[in-house]
Predict the 3D structure of the following.
Amino acid sequence: MKLNSICSSIFLVCLTIGFVGCKNGLDDYIPPAIQPHTDNGNGNPGDNTNFNNLGITPHQDGTPYDTFKGLIMCGYQGWFGTPDDGSLLTKQERCYYHYQEHGQFRPGVMKNSIDFWPDMSEYEKQYTVGEEVPNANSSPFILPNGKKATVFSPYDKSSVLLHFNWMKQYGIDGVFMQRFVGEISGATHKEHFDKVLDNAMESSNTYQRAISVMYDLSGAKEEGWKLMVKDAQELMDKYALKDRTRQRFYLYQNGKPLLALWGIGFNDTSHPTATKIKPYVDQLKLQGWSIMLGCPAYWRMGGNDCVSGTEHTALINLIKECDAFIPWYVGRYDYSNFSGTDWQNRIRLDISTAKTYANVVYATHVYPGGSDRNMHPNNGLDVENTDNTGGRYGGKFYWQQFYHDIKNGVEAIYVGMFDEMDEGTAIFKQLNAKDVPSNIYDGPDYYVTYKRDGSYDISTDVKTGDNVIWSRLATSLKVNFQGIDNNLPTDHYLWLTGQAAKMLNGQIRMTETIPDR
């Protein structure tokens, strides 16, 4: 999920000052604190001597996944590609899909899109940037040891198998496979995502990890919604999802395979309202799906990033008719304000309110941090960032969210994301900050221009005009690749996620500080 596609212009100012949550009008009211749903077994919620108690038996490895409750699931983009990975898309367009920016994959702000670099030490298939088919608009990225950096493609089955192996190794339950409605409308893009989904379905069976399809509705209109319904039926049939002997670990909820629809009820023109999408939800239910919705952070009261008035009422009604839902928090809070009274009271009441909706699972959204500066260099422009670790604070921000959400009574958690290097929210293995390649363009300096409509340009000369917010030399922006803290292993966030799954299910004690490893 792209930050620029999910945050409307009302969030641009918030992002500039470092992912601070916005407030307005009606939603300024913060209700008094209430007790969490669970007392963790002995009447003293959430302190570090207690175990969480969900009241259910934790999922046992090797058995089907019959409910989202008790699980920690990640979003899985699966959208990276390289010019010679064999896909129709990258072969036709000679591109580094979702690695590139402005048609290029080379050092330099806005000349590539990723903020972190993958730890490639375990990948069977690796691609050395700048040494593949000609005319790919790429050049090598040089590691501090002088070697050329490599990247991966999930179009290769071996890469996806490795990722699912990590999930099993670290105790992560599974993933929601992102399927972008706006992209599968084209044959070449669809072929890429079809192959990645094939790889993931096989990997799910191989490593006994939960899997579910999630349609991202960002930017899609009615023709896209119709396509989604058609595509969903094709997937249901292709993978025989009603026959649990075929895809044994496909995630079920309320007795049916779970299908997620992300992007309902946001206060912008890029996502459908509940009123508009409901007929298509009804069609999906008739196909035999249970439905999970991806909603705004302010879903409960409306306003801010969420629709208001009658459309907000329609959103709440649709949530109650579905089987699960999640909020979206990237860009709404960060390490500096998450544990404060505002967000804790808000999330606590969100959880308790959702539990009044019969047969609906509410999963909070947790993310490790964010950067998104290569594509959107205005993000964090005036925030000092000397350690280049993407606002993660060694995992303290990530663990803080797990701890407080579990303490507040949440029953399931959605991690965004497993592999999202573009915005810096990935939890899979990535290089330490000291080991990332240089992001300094080896040619003449150039100008990056940020416009009032939120778009960016690069040029050889400075730009001016009423539509320009700033136009600066690329080197002055100091956009470096981020990395895992140098004193931590590259698997740190995989390990933390697995520990959080144990804490959610009462298998380790509740602790506000990161447990010892």
